[in-house]
Request: fold
Amino acid sequence: MDAVIADLREHRITGDGIGLFTATRHIGLLCHLTARMAADVEYQLAPNIAGLPPAEALGQTTGHLGRTIAHYTQALAPLVALARTGAQATPPKQLDAIDQHTRLRVHLDDAGQSLAAARACLGTPRRPVTQRTTAAISVPAPTVRRRS
Reply:
């Protein structure tokens, strides 16, 4: 997840055609990460897989990533409008561009907050394995058959 966050920070979204391409690239990365997290939740529900955060934290992270994708998707409309404005610098177009930039900033800020919440879910400390926890998992003794 840290690699995706670093990539999102490195490739900023601008209000032009390149920003539109970058936003769709970010959406693709986030969709891939969300699918991976959802799969990790499923595997974590199986017996003890080492190295994964608890299933509850993975599930919450997946929800926050979904919200991040939704905010990026909402940012596409202002990006398309800004990309179309381009060289047409009439005063009404410039005023509309200010509104589109404001809408874009709101969606990208909300996406950043959702992404930070997703990262915070994974930063929660894991429960240490205690004697009580291990005692709750019963392992049947191997059965030995005697030949008659």
